[in-house]
Amino acid sequence: MRLLAFALPLICTAPVLAADVAYTKPVGGFTNAAAASTDTRISPVLARDAAWVGTIASVSATTLTAAGTPNWTASAFGPGASTYYARVLSGAQRGQYFIITASTTDTLTVDNAGLNLTTITAGDAFEVVPFWTLGTLFPASQAGSAFVASSSALARQTEVLTYDATQTGINRASSGTYYFLNGAWRKVGSSAGTSFDSTLIFPDGYVIQRNKAAATTLVQTGRVQPAYLGSVIEATASAQNDNFVSISFPIDVTLDQVGLAGTVFAASSSPLAISDQLLWYDPAATGINVASSATYYYYNGAWRKRGSSASLNFGSTVLKAGSGFIIRKAANGTSGTWNFATGI
């Protein structure tokens, strides 16, 4: 697997208005180069423009009511070709996002992802944002550069593999494989006449771009994710569980900087009794179905690496911008949230 990614300079700032709220959005570009005959982990390091920004008036178990009079069109943010999420920008749930399942002129019904929404309080800021999809992150206009179109359903070139976060276990196979044919994204196992352009790509996860015969370069444009990036990290009672997450931000960070230790990532009691693990994939590696290049765990106040001395501190290990990795929760571990502070 080979990923050559870098952040272009921030090129401008522009105001986004919603109700009586305004904020500035740093915007720019990001490039993912994917080698031939290789699986490349790709995450959406830039967000799409917010459709609305404002504050919370009230919450319930599955609803968010906006303050003021937003005057949304009823059902404007419900499920459809452009599905939206609500991201909380301040307060106890800052960084977390919730899929919008229905909307009225001032209220959003959301999938609460198992979290307690009542910790969100009146006055907390939030935004409504359209998801990236296969058709928007890998648009038809980038065919031939960001990916290679297929000549038929049996002669597939670039494939995009996705993972279902509702499934559990380790070493899971992908839940869907997609290819580009006749102007749209198609799904293996489904009719080649059905478009899957609206397939969602989650802001805190990744997809695998599997190039066959040719290398490609994807250009992402958008705004830098604001304030905090939140992920729900799931554990299961009877077995280990893999969570597919990413550095969804256009700057490299280290293990010490990602904010996992001491939160949702459980420390190990000894090098012989490892609890949670972080499986990292070297962006410079090539090949299909490659194994993780390193496994890290947290022990005795520092990041350690399996196969190396437990006295060595790997906290300065760099996690490349836009790259994906796995948090493998130990059996009978505790689920929780991971919030990465972007500094924006």
Q: Outline, from the CA principal axes?
A: globular
Low-confidence segments = 1-24
Distance between the termini: 30 Å
| C-alpha-based Rg, rounded | 20 Å
**H and E order:** EEEEEEEEEEEEHEEEEEEEEEEEEEEE
Number of domains: 3
| Biggest sheet details | 6 strands, antiparallel, barrel
The helicity comes to: under 10%
Helix count equals 1
Query: Into which percentage range does the β-strand content fall?
Result: 35-45%
Q: How would you write the strand order of the largest sheet?
A: 6-7-10-9-8-11
Category by helix and strand content: mainly beta
The whole-number mean of residue pLDDT values reads: 89
Strand segment count: 27
Structural features, described:
- The chain has 344 residues and is mainly beta.
- It has three domains: 3-47 and 133-223, no CATH class; 52-130, Beta Barrel (Elongation Factor Tu (Ef-tu), domain 3), CATH 2.40.30; 228-341, no CATH class.
- 1% of the residues lie in helices and 41% in strands.
- The strands form seven sheets. A six-stranded antiparallel barrel has the order 6-7-10-9-8-11. Strands 1, 2, 3, 5 and 18 form a five-stranded antiparallel sheet that branches. Strands 4-17-13-14-15 form a five-stranded antiparallel sheet, with no helix packed on it.
- A hairpin with a 3-residue loop joins strand 6 (52-59) and strand 7 (63-66).
- It starts with a strand and ends with a strand.
- The relative contact order is 0.19.
